[in-house]
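Task 17 of the worksheet. Students: predict the tertiary structure of the chain below and write it out as structure tokens. Keep your answer in the requested format; marks are given for formatting as well as content.
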Amino acid sequence: MPTYGGKQEILQVKTCRNNRVDWELGHQMYLSELAGALRRRWWAVVIGLLGTAAIAALVFTLVPPEQEAHASLVILPPARSVGETGNPYLSLGGLQPAADMLAAAMNSGPVHESLAPSQGSATFEVAQDTESSGPMLLVTVNDNDPERALALLDSVIKTMPHVLAQLQEQVHVRTTNRLTVTEVARDTQAERSVKTLLRATLVAVVGGLALTVFGTNMLDGLLIRRSVKKTTSLERSAEETSSVDESDAAREVRPRYSTERNGRTRISQSEEIDASTARGPGGTTDGHMGNGDQMSDAVQTPQSGLQEPSTVLNPAHEHENLSASDRAT
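Model answer:
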């Protein structure tokens, strides 16, 4: 149905917009968090930058500069098509495909391996000369030693005509109709090339900066998690210590209530020990109470805050007091 299809399209568009908005928000949040981590751990950023500079300087010092030599060659049409009095340089049109084919044959396969083995330090490349509109080929040779670079350049130039002849022989081209390649210019001295050196240094700098940024971010997250764990452990230990202190305090506190047994008011064992300690050898308490005297103590209950009178009897004369009361009765 058209209406259903229209609704489906609207839902798809809204879903795509929501996904895009979510991605943008997540990207912005990640960048903001990354910037915050770099600000918090600025010392790690400084260390990373210093390390990157040291690595770049080390690479620039250790990587040897290469010696580079160039040569230019051109593909010529067959002599038969030009004629005895013709100029071959006026008939260069349409020869660019042959030049590309020759460059491909020189840059790969057994030809390249025989001239510049992969285990060695010398390399060469045959490519189209972009500064010329004709079938021009530019040969570039690189080696650590300038003499070896020139020797390799000479070998490549001598090999190219043979390779071109083999390519034409494979398709059974007659000798009179075959293309030829000739040298146009060649360097007599190899020049120092810093392209490889700059490339290695740039790789070191980029790698060091990336390692600094992401390493600082990871370090920030690790330190934050460690701080959170430490804070949590301290809080738990404080809570455990407080709970232990409260339980110890609850054990030490004993209610000092007077208990009545058999109609007589008595004090607890702890109060008896305190009372006996407070009394002297004669049974008096600091000369204020005599033998047989009763002390009235007001004990405040923890629940109501009221004072309950309790008669404190002298344990030493309790029996005498009871006997006197029986005789009086």
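Marker's comment: The two ends are 116 Å apart (CA to CA). The beta strands are 66-76, 123-128, 136-143, 180-186, 191-193, 259-261, 264-266, 295-300, 307-312.
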